[in-house]
Amino acid sequence: MSDEVLVEVEGGIAVITINRPKARNAINGAVARAVVAALDELEERKDVSAYVLTGAGGTFSAGMDLKGFLTGDVPLVPGRGFGGLTETPPKKPIVAAVEGYALAGGFELVLACDIVVASEEAKFGLPEPKRGLVAGAGGVMRLPRRIPYHVAMEIALTGDHFPAARLYEVGLVNKITPPGEALAAAKEIAARIAANAPMALLATKRVMVESADWSREEMFAKQGEIINPVFGSKDATEGAVAFAEKRAPNWAGE
What we know:
Layout: E1 5-10, E2 13-18, H1 29-42, E3 50-55, H2 66-70, E4 76-77, E5 81-82, E6 94-98, E7 101-103, H3 105-111, E8 115-119, E9 123-125, H4 139-146, H5 149-158, E10 162-163, H6 164-169, E11 175-177, H7 182-194, H8 198-210, H9 219-231, H10 234-244
Parallel strand pairs: 2-3, 3-6, 6-8, 7-9, 8-11
Antiparallel strand pairs: 1-2, 4-5, 9-10
Helix pairs in contact: 4-5, 8-9
């Protein structure tokens, strides 16, 4: 694993940390490739059910490493996108833990996550228009699907910074914490997720993500294709037995 990305696995949770604090965790090619390498391994591990994505040194990410970009260092991986996950987010649930700045591509990484925890001092923004650019890593597509249209337009068109409290008001941030406590709170949420059946988690996330494009006529058929194997799984039986026996289930992921 590259030093630019750190991975720690414990209790069914993998914490993925962007580790370039001196550059405000700006994303370069090494970070993107390391994120892909980490996820390729973690997606196959049965002892990992959820992820937390965060940044080292008190900030999430200031976005693309512009100095690197000018020298030809591309911060994306074909088929996976900016930072290794904006185009193809992981199949398993992922929680963003945001301290400090989540700007430009950094904000787009947050938008690729399923749940967002932020310090009350965190700042979000898509400042690309201020630099003659466009938020092309999913920001201008995902944002209006997550929050009210006019608020999304204000964020995208002004390029200004917006506090965590404002994004909590409009539903983009799930939980606000005191400074320095976003990671702990994100891990707590991830632990609650990881306590559930792995197959059920994968199917639930997949239906929620993919169903946005389903027609009314096909929605239940498509859902059935995804969730029917869950109902016939060993974990479905274990869940029922554990409930009847008033004990915690022992998931097999099968």
